[in-house]
Amino acid sequence: MVKVKICGITNFDDALAAAEFGADALGFVFYKKSPRHIAPDKAAQIIFRLPPFVSTVGVFVDEKKKEIEKIMDRLGLDAAQFHGHEPPEACEIPRRTIKAIRVKELTDLEPMRHYRVSAFLLDTFTKDAPGGTGQIFNWSIAVDAKPFGKIILAGGLTPENVAEAIRMVKPYGVDVSSGVELEPGIKNHEKLRLFIQRAKEAIPVPGWIP
Length: 210
Hints:
The chain is α/β, with parallel strands linked by helices.
């Protein structure tokens, strides 16, 4: 069964709803220029009230390694997601790590061979923002990325297209933010429920290798 990460969490009601609907992980964006930015203090208040067995992921963009490790330790985060231009050595911290790769064409996958991370998150390349734009890229490129490691598919996923994306790519996981929002940082709980349900019900086919 594919893993589901709900990203851009900014309040406890959305976090609890996502957890109760069956999300495997919640993402907290510590990039100050993001419309979904959350301060570590506020994230801590949410995380410490979550039910057990829900993973938490800190999302960072070109942040200093010491600051990342400080926030990770303080909040007890399970994984760090690097969503900027971090070189391979910047992603080497003593935690599970996810490197985001912004995809426009097949050649954008080339840097993946240099990273030693737990998984790669493939998001749509745009000039104006490092992520969360709600735009789709060519999913066939995500299929070509699978030899490099576990793939988390992102970029323009919604309750309406997530099952199709999973059947085509057969990823380890899917990640959504804007596709289940009322506005940046505020989730639509019905969309949350449908997204998670449809992702979890996407039927594996023979030869499924996440």
